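During the reporting period the student researcher (J.K.) took over the structure-prediction task from the postdoctoral fellow and processed the backlog of single-chain submissions. One of the processed entries is reproduced below for the supervisory committee.
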Amino acid sequence: MIIFKMKFLIALIILGISLYLAYLAKNKVLEFQFRIEKEKFPVLNILSHIAYISIAVIGTLTSLSMMGVDITALVAGIGITGFAVGFALKDIISNLIAGIMIILYNPFRIGEYIKVSGYEGKVVEINLRYTVLEKEGSKVLVPNATMFKNIITVSKV
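J.K. obtained the following structure tokens:
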């Protein structure tokens, strides 16, 4: 009984430390917002959440393992679930990653006139899912995966 209490206490300490480290990592990533442009804040927010969740999950799995729980089935289940969700959401994830790359690399900026894949217009917004083009009063929402995969002609208006 004493051994179980010690394992439980060690598991709680590991869990607490990992949640604290996850909190610190998230805040460290968010500190970069003072050094980057405002347009890149969504990317920083996503990275901070990924850091927090990753460290928290690893800490939780480690603490469960310390208590004697067999986590191999749990890890395998998480892997299979991640694969299934990733495959089901591949277009959304593709647009998200392309949006992050467009925001980071700035191949075009808001206010510039672009042509891509049969669409053209003045860029009025760039977000994580799509780029908004405006031409003659109408708006076109072009998925970022399309923007990232095709040739873009950029001209200043």
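The committee noted the following: The chain has two domains: 2-88, 107-155.
J.K. will present the remaining backlog at the next meeting.
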